[in-house]
Write a structure and sequence with these properties.
This protein is mainly beta. It has two helices and eleven strands. Belongs to the calycin superfamily. Fatty-acid binding protein (FABP) family.
Amino acid sequence: MSFSGRYQLESQENFEPFMKAIGLSDELIQKGKDIKSISEIEENGDHFKVTVTTGTKVLVNSFTIGKEAELETVTGEKVKSVVHREGNKLKVCLKGIESITEMVDANTILNTMTVAGIVYKRTIKRI
């Protein structure tokens, strides 16, 4: 299955505790908790470009599977890391945050991020 497409946030679990754990201010957490972000994923072989628009904030990450890339975290920090693919899952670790992005079915992606034992889950649906 290809990850390519446009997706909208459908549901999320543990948003506030996770964002607090990675250092976002209460003000930013309150602003962002109810926004339905839009994710656009372009997959071309092993190369990916992921654009996530949350309100006025746009986060763009480009990477090639298995090669080091500079990726921007949720907090805006840029970190060098390597994204790995295992079947229908993309896995990466960014500054202690373990992220797994799984293509659940043709229209659904589950993104699970874990830091310090706090698990944040986001479900996005193709639009």
